[in-house]
Amino acid sequence: SGKVTEGLRMDRSLVRLQPRNPLAHYNLACSLSLKKRKKEAVESLETAVSLGYKDFEWMAKDPALQPLEGYSGFVILLEKLRDNH
Asked: What percent of the chain has pLDDT over 90?
């Protein structure tokens, strides 16, 4: 848990430093997911996608996003991505 908290802090810093970097937002989403902050994680994923993140197959199976499995916001996001790509 300490490493996840430290990672979350680092990811937040990276997003502040590189607000247009889709991978920074994706990594922030992973940290938020691991902290069980589902709504914030999905919002970060949506930002990553809007900035150009495209590896939707990985997103659907990324172990760091497993806590989002079954969460309605994540399910809706994945469905939207499958429909649009």
From this structure: 93
